[in-house]
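Example record

Each entry pairs one chain with its bound ligand, fe (ii) ion.
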Amino acid sequence: MTDYLEWLDEYSVGIPELDAEHRRLMELTNRVLHAVEAHDHPRGIAAVEEVIAVMVKHFDREEAWMRTSGFPGYEAHRAAHNEHVRRLMGFSLELKREAIDLVDVVEFLMTWLYDHIQHLDVEFAAHLKSPPTE
Ligand SMILES: [Fe+2]
Ligand SMILES: [Fe+2]
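Structure tokens for the complex follow.
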């Protein structure tokens, strides 16, 4: 069984607002795992839907900051967000039809979140922290 996500300082991208939202997303993802362990499918579906809702708001914030800061990786980063939301919406429908296991969805959520923060978000945060060149 997958382990619960635990926030570590090394996950920090150095922007407190983003760190707080990433932490919150980890907590919400842990709720999905909790539902898996409790064999509570309806609660698991509700938890996945909450992850999606909070994630969409988080992506909106990141993308707004990318536009205002002139982040050159905006299009690629936004595409990664959109693709992820599209996949999660698909999983959410499949969960309702019981065509996919909740445990597979939670593993996907955890792997994606960790990987996205460590790679794409770190890159974007570095841009936000860098002094303007002009
Ligand atoms: Fe993020
Ligand atoms: Fe992101």
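The first helix runs from residue 16 to 37.
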